[in-house]
Specification:
The protein has helices at about 40, 50-55, 70-85, 105-110, 110-120, 145-150, 180-190, 210-220, 225-230, 245-250, 260-270, 280-285, and strands spanning about 1-5, 10-15, 25, 30, 60-65, 90-95, 130-135, 155-160, 195-200, 220-225, 275-280. The protein is α/β, with parallel strands linked by helices. The protein has one domain (about 1-285): pyruvate-formate lyase- activating enzyme. The protein starts with a strand and ends in a 6-residue tail after the last helix.
Length: about 290
Protein backbone atom coordinates (compact mmCIF):
# COMPACT_ATOMS: atom_id res chain seq x y z
CA UNK A 1 0.00 0.00 0.00
CA UNK A 2 1.48 3.33 -1.11
CA UNK A 3 0.51 6.09 1.33
CA UNK A 4 1.25 9.72 0.56
CA UNK A 5 0.31 13.10 2.00
CA UNK A 6 -1.26 15.67 -0.28
CA UNK A 7 -3.30 18.86 -0.12
CA UNK A 8 -6.49 19.78 -1.93
CA UNK A 9 -7.52 23.19 -3.23
CA UNK A 10 -11.25 22.78 -2.66
CA UNK A 11 -12.39 19.68 -0.82
CA UNK A 12 -16.02 20.44 -1.77
CA UNK A 13 -16.70 19.16 -5.29
CA UNK A 14 -19.89 20.28 -7.04
CA UNK A 15 -21.69 17.12 -8.06
CA UNK A 16 -22.56 15.97 -11.55
CA UNK A 17 -23.70 12.72 -13.08
CA UNK A 18 -24.90 10.06 -10.64
CA UNK A 19 -24.65 12.25 -7.54
CA UNK A 20 -26.28 15.36 -9.00
CA UNK A 21 -29.80 14.51 -7.81
CA UNK A 22 -28.53 13.31 -4.42
CA UNK A 23 -26.43 16.18 -3.05
CA UNK A 24 -24.99 19.48 -4.23
CA UNK A 25 -21.44 18.47 -3.25
CA UNK A 26 -19.24 15.49 -2.53
CA UNK A 27 -16.33 15.48 -0.11
CA UNK A 28 -13.41 13.05 -0.18
CA UNK A 29 -11.05 13.17 2.85
CA UNK A 30 -8.78 10.69 1.07
CA UNK A 31 -8.12 9.64 -2.50
CA UNK A 32 -7.79 5.92 -3.09
CA UNK A 33 -8.94 3.24 -0.68
CA UNK A 34 -7.14 0.43 1.17
CA UNK A 35 -10.44 -1.47 1.27
CA UNK A 36 -9.93 -1.96 -2.47
CA UNK A 37 -8.19 -5.22 -1.60
CA UNK A 38 -11.26 -6.60 0.18
CA UNK A 39 -14.62 -7.86 -1.08
CA UNK A 40 -16.13 -4.39 -1.49
CA UNK A 41 -13.12 -3.37 -3.58
CA UNK A 42 -13.82 -6.04 -6.20
CA UNK A 43 -17.13 -4.44 -7.08
CA UNK A 44 -16.24 -0.85 -6.20
CA UNK A 45 -17.45 1.51 -8.89
CA UNK A 46 -14.64 4.01 -8.25
CA UNK A 47 -12.01 1.66 -9.71
CA UNK A 48 -13.42 2.53 -13.16
CA UNK A 49 -12.73 6.26 -12.71
CA UNK A 50 -9.39 7.09 -14.38
CA UNK A 51 -9.35 10.56 -12.79
CA UNK A 52 -9.12 8.91 -9.36
CA UNK A 53 -6.93 5.93 -10.15
CA UNK A 54 -4.53 7.63 -12.60
CA UNK A 55 -3.48 4.21 -13.86
CA UNK A 56 -2.91 2.75 -10.39
CA UNK A 57 -4.42 -0.52 -9.22
CA UNK A 58 -7.43 0.04 -6.98
CA UNK A 59 -6.49 -0.78 -3.40
CA UNK A 60 -2.79 -0.07 -3.91
CA UNK A 61 -2.70 3.61 -2.89
CA UNK A 62 -4.07 6.11 -0.42
CA UNK A 63 -3.56 9.86 -0.65
CA UNK A 64 -4.13 11.57 2.70
CA UNK A 65 -5.62 15.03 2.18
CA UNK A 66 -3.99 16.59 5.19
CA UNK A 67 -5.63 20.01 4.73
CA UNK A 68 -9.17 18.73 4.12
CA UNK A 69 -10.63 20.38 7.24
CA UNK A 70 -8.90 23.71 6.55
CA UNK A 71 -10.12 23.55 2.95
CA UNK A 72 -13.67 23.06 4.19
CA UNK A 73 -13.38 26.08 6.49
CA UNK A 74 -12.03 28.19 3.63
CA UNK A 75 -14.59 27.21 0.98
CA UNK A 76 -17.81 26.27 2.79
CA UNK A 77 -19.33 29.76 2.80
CA UNK A 78 -18.83 30.25 -0.93
CA UNK A 79 -20.03 26.76 -1.85
CA UNK A 80 -23.05 27.04 0.43
CA UNK A 81 -24.11 30.31 -1.25
CA UNK A 82 -23.73 28.70 -4.67
CA UNK A 83 -25.70 25.60 -3.70
CA UNK A 84 -28.55 27.55 -2.15
CA UNK A 85 -28.84 29.63 -5.32
CA UNK A 86 -28.43 26.89 -7.91
CA UNK A 87 -29.42 23.64 -6.20
CA UNK A 88 -32.02 22.64 -3.62
CA UNK A 89 -29.72 23.58 -0.75
CA UNK A 90 -26.21 22.89 0.47
CA UNK A 91 -25.83 19.14 0.87
CA UNK A 92 -22.76 16.91 1.07
CA UNK A 93 -22.11 13.24 0.27
CA UNK A 94 -19.14 12.06 2.35
CA UNK A 95 -17.73 10.01 0.66
CA UNK A 96 -18.49 8.79 -2.84
CA UNK A 97 -14.97 7.87 -3.99
CA UNK A 98 -13.18 6.65 -0.88
CA UNK A 99 -13.75 5.04 2.51
CA UNK A 100 -13.94 7.86 5.09
CA UNK A 101 -12.84 5.50 7.89
CA UNK A 102 -9.95 3.44 6.51
CA UNK A 103 -7.58 1.87 9.04
CA UNK A 104 -5.30 4.89 8.50
CA UNK A 105 -7.99 7.23 9.86
CA UNK A 106 -6.85 6.22 13.37
CA UNK A 107 -3.44 7.77 12.64
CA UNK A 108 -4.42 10.76 10.50
CA UNK A 109 -7.95 11.60 11.67
CA UNK A 110 -8.83 13.46 8.47
CA UNK A 111 -12.52 12.58 8.48
CA UNK A 112 -12.83 13.42 12.17
CA UNK A 113 -11.20 16.79 11.53
CA UNK A 114 -13.64 17.52 8.70
CA UNK A 115 -16.63 16.66 10.90
CA UNK A 116 -15.22 18.86 13.67
CA UNK A 117 -14.88 21.71 11.19
CA UNK A 118 -18.53 21.33 10.22
CA UNK A 119 -19.61 21.44 13.86
CA UNK A 120 -17.54 24.57 14.48
CA UNK A 121 -18.76 26.58 11.49
CA UNK A 122 -21.49 29.25 11.73
CA UNK A 123 -24.98 28.09 10.68
CA UNK A 124 -24.74 29.43 7.13
CA UNK A 125 -21.65 27.28 6.50
CA UNK A 126 -23.08 24.05 7.89
CA UNK A 127 -24.63 21.77 5.23
CA UNK A 128 -28.39 21.59 5.13
CA UNK A 129 -27.93 17.84 4.73
CA UNK A 130 -24.99 15.49 5.26
CA UNK A 131 -24.93 11.90 4.02
CA UNK A 132 -22.07 9.90 5.50
CA UNK A 133 -21.41 6.72 3.49
CA UNK A 134 -19.09 4.06 4.90
CA UNK A 135 -18.24 0.36 4.84
CA UNK A 136 -16.58 0.50 8.23
CA UNK A 137 -17.86 -0.07 11.77
CA UNK A 138 -15.26 2.53 12.82
CA UNK A 139 -17.93 5.14 12.14
CA UNK A 140 -19.14 4.56 15.70
CA UNK A 141 -15.94 6.21 16.95
CA UNK A 142 -17.32 9.60 15.85
CA UNK A 143 -20.87 9.01 17.09
CA UNK A 144 -20.79 12.00 19.45
CA UNK A 145 -19.60 14.29 16.66
CA UNK A 146 -22.41 12.98 14.47
CA UNK A 147 -24.94 13.63 17.23
CA UNK A 148 -23.69 17.21 17.41
CA UNK A 149 -24.05 17.58 13.64
CA UNK A 150 -27.52 16.01 13.68
CA UNK A 151 -28.62 18.90 15.89
CA UNK A 152 -27.47 21.34 13.21
CA UNK A 153 -28.43 19.66 9.93
CA UNK A 154 -30.27 16.71 8.42
CA UNK A 155 -27.92 13.76 8.79
CA UNK A 156 -28.07 10.21 7.49
CA UNK A 157 -25.41 7.58 8.10
CA UNK A 158 -25.23 4.96 5.34
CA UNK A 159 -23.46 1.73 6.30
CA UNK A 160 -22.83 -0.84 3.56
CA UNK A 161 -23.65 -4.50 4.10
CA UNK A 162 -23.79 -6.12 0.66
CA UNK A 163 -24.65 -9.69 1.63
CA UNK A 164 -25.20 -12.09 4.51
CA UNK A 165 -22.51 -14.42 3.14
CA UNK A 166 -19.07 -14.16 4.78
CA UNK A 167 -17.34 -14.96 1.49
CA UNK A 168 -17.96 -15.39 -2.23
CA UNK A 169 -15.99 -18.02 -4.19
CA UNK A 170 -12.64 -16.83 -5.46
CA UNK A 171 -12.98 -13.36 -3.91
CA UNK A 172 -11.29 -11.82 -0.85
CA UNK A 173 -13.23 -11.55 2.42
CA UNK A 174 -14.82 -8.26 3.50
CA UNK A 175 -12.73 -5.73 5.39
CA UNK A 176 -14.98 -6.11 8.44
CA UNK A 177 -17.40 -8.84 9.40
CA UNK A 178 -21.11 -8.71 8.79
CA UNK A 179 -21.69 -8.95 12.54
CA UNK A 180 -19.42 -5.96 13.21
CA UNK A 181 -21.29 -3.80 10.71
CA UNK A 182 -24.73 -4.81 11.97
CA UNK A 183 -23.60 -4.04 15.51
CA UNK A 184 -22.33 -0.63 14.41
CA UNK A 185 -25.61 0.17 12.66
CA UNK A 186 -27.58 -0.80 15.76
CA UNK A 187 -25.32 1.38 17.92
CA UNK A 188 -25.84 4.38 15.64
CA UNK A 189 -29.59 3.85 15.59
CA UNK A 190 -29.66 3.50 19.38
CA UNK A 191 -27.79 6.84 19.58
CA UNK A 192 -30.68 8.49 17.74
CA UNK A 193 -28.89 8.87 14.41
CA UNK A 194 -30.79 8.23 11.17
CA UNK A 195 -29.19 4.99 10.02
CA UNK A 196 -29.51 3.39 6.59
CA UNK A 197 -28.03 0.06 5.55
CA UNK A 198 -26.94 0.16 1.91
CA UNK A 199 -26.92 -3.19 0.15
CA UNK A 200 -24.65 -1.89 -2.57
CA UNK A 201 -23.84 -3.54 -4.77
CA UNK A 202 -26.36 -6.23 -3.95
CA UNK A 203 -24.61 -9.60 -3.73
CA UNK A 204 -26.32 -13.00 -3.43
CA UNK A 205 -28.17 -13.42 -0.15
CA UNK A 206 -28.28 -16.82 1.54
CA UNK A 207 -31.40 -16.10 3.62
CA UNK A 208 -33.11 -12.91 2.38
CA UNK A 209 -35.97 -13.05 4.89
CA UNK A 210 -33.61 -13.29 7.85
CA UNK A 211 -31.26 -10.68 6.37
CA UNK A 212 -33.90 -8.00 5.91
CA UNK A 213 -35.43 -8.80 9.29
CA UNK A 214 -32.02 -8.11 10.77
CA UNK A 215 -31.73 -4.89 8.75
CA UNK A 216 -35.09 -3.71 10.10
CA UNK A 217 -33.84 -4.18 13.66
CA UNK A 218 -30.50 -2.43 13.14
CA UNK A 219 -31.44 0.46 10.86
CA UNK A 220 -34.19 2.91 9.97
CA UNK A 221 -34.16 2.18 6.23
CA UNK A 222 -32.42 0.17 3.52
CA UNK A 223 -31.14 0.94 0.02
CA UNK A 224 -30.57 -1.74 -2.62
CA UNK A 225 -28.32 -1.02 -5.58
CA UNK A 226 -27.31 -3.40 -8.36
CA UNK A 227 -24.13 -3.08 -10.37
CA UNK A 228 -26.30 -2.79 -13.50
CA UNK A 229 -26.79 0.94 -13.66
CA UNK A 230 -25.01 1.47 -10.38
CA UNK A 231 -21.54 1.26 -11.88
CA UNK A 232 -22.28 4.13 -14.27
CA UNK A 233 -23.03 1.94 -17.28
CA UNK A 234 -26.61 1.06 -18.14
CA UNK A 235 -25.83 -2.65 -18.58
CA UNK A 236 -23.21 -3.06 -15.87
CA UNK A 237 -20.50 -3.52 -18.50
CA UNK A 238 -17.81 -2.03 -16.27
CA UNK A 239 -18.44 -4.49 -13.46
CA UNK A 240 -18.75 -7.36 -15.93
CA UNK A 241 -15.05 -6.87 -16.67
CA UNK A 242 -14.27 -7.79 -13.05
CA UNK A 243 -14.42 -11.12 -11.22
CA UNK A 244 -17.58 -10.17 -9.34
CA UNK A 245 -20.39 -11.30 -11.71
CA UNK A 246 -18.91 -14.78 -12.18
CA UNK A 247 -18.58 -15.23 -8.42
CA UNK A 248 -22.16 -14.06 -7.93
CA UNK A 249 -23.47 -16.45 -10.58
CA UNK A 250 -21.59 -19.37 -9.07
CA UNK A 251 -23.59 -18.87 -5.86
CA UNK A 252 -26.88 -17.66 -7.35
CA UNK A 253 -27.11 -17.68 -11.18
CA UNK A 254 -29.87 -15.07 -11.32
CA UNK A 255 -28.13 -12.59 -9.03
CA UNK A 256 -26.23 -10.83 -11.82
CA UNK A 257 -29.48 -9.61 -13.40
CA UNK A 258 -31.83 -6.82 -12.34
CA UNK A 259 -34.67 -9.27 -11.73
CA UNK A 260 -32.80 -10.50 -8.66
CA UNK A 261 -32.65 -6.98 -7.25
CA UNK A 262 -36.39 -6.55 -7.81
CA UNK A 263 -37.14 -9.82 -6.02
CA UNK A 264 -35.01 -8.73 -3.05
CA UNK A 265 -36.75 -5.33 -3.01
CA UNK A 266 -40.11 -7.06 -2.60
CA UNK A 267 -38.80 -9.04 0.38
CA UNK A 268 -37.25 -5.90 1.90
CA UNK A 269 -40.58 -4.07 1.60
CA UNK A 270 -42.27 -6.66 3.80
CA UNK A 271 -39.78 -5.96 6.59
CA UNK A 272 -39.33 -2.19 6.11
CA UNK A 273 -42.54 -0.85 4.53
CA UNK A 274 -42.07 2.67 3.22
CA UNK A 275 -38.36 2.58 4.06
CA UNK A 276 -36.88 0.81 1.03
CA UNK A 277 -34.91 2.76 -1.55
CA UNK A 278 -33.60 1.56 -4.89
CA UNK A 279 -30.46 2.83 -6.60
CA UNK A 280 -29.98 6.55 -6.97
CA UNK A 281 -33.37 7.36 -5.43
CA UNK A 282 -32.52 5.37 -2.33
CA UNK A 283 -29.21 7.13 -1.80
CA UNK A 284 -31.10 10.43 -2.06
CA UNK A 285 -33.55 9.32 0.64
CA UNK A 286 -36.43 8.81 -1.80
CA UNK A 287 -38.11 5.59 -0.70
CA UNK A 288 -40.73 3.41 -2.38
CA UNK A 289 -44.33 3.96 -1.31
Amino acid sequence: MEISNTSVGNVLTRTSGYLRTITSHSLQPYRGCPLGNSLCGVGCYVQHNPYVTQGRRWGSFLEVRTNAADSYRATAAREARWARRHREGFSIFLSSSTEPFPPQEKRYGITRQVLEAMVEQPPEEVPDELILQTHSPRVTEVAELLRALARRCRLRVHLSIETDRPKLPGLPPPASTIAQRFAAAAQLKEAGLATVITVAPLLPLEDPESFFSRVAEAADAVVLDHFIGGDGSSTGSRTRRTRLPAAMEEVQPASSELGYRDAMVRIAQRHLPGKVGVGIDGFAGRFLA
